[in-house]
Amino acid sequence: MELDLMEKQLKAVADANRLRILACLKKGEVCVCDFTDFLNISQPAVSQHLRKLKEAGIITERKVGTWKHYRIQENQTSLMRNILASINEDSTCGCKINTECVEG
């Protein structure tokens, strides 16, 4: 594995909030609007955590209307597969079906 990628991925997961995001995403795709309540932090802080995980190639996003939905990237390095396997899924997190983040 490329050392630069390994360093970026290890730095990305070396934060409790980012680990909680990954635990949440183990259930599946989640709208960005649901992370602020789940993490109890501001939207800009959530965006910074998501950006770091995305830049490390750990998560991916798709846009739905004005909202972004995030999920764990399917193709992971062996390092990330092992780390993700050791994170327990958080069942208290997930998309809340509401008009704020769901657009047709």
UniProtKB/TrEMBL annotation:
InterPro entries: ArsR-like_HTH, HTH_ArsR_DNA-bd_dom, HTH_MetalResp_TranReg, WH-like_DNA-bd_sf, WH_DNA-bd_sf. Coiled coil: none annotated. CDD domains: HTH_ARSR (cd00090). Gene3D superfamilies: Winged helix-like DNA-binding domain superfamily/Winged helix DNA-binding domain. The keyword Zinc-finger does not apply. Residues 1-91 form the HTH arsR-type domain. Keywords: DNA-binding, Transcription, Transcription regulation. The keyword Disulfide bond does not apply. GO terms for molecular function: DNA binding; DNA-binding transcription factor activity. NCBIfam families: HTH_metalloreg (NF033788). This is HTH-type transcriptional repressor AseR. It comes from Solibacillus isronensis B3W22.
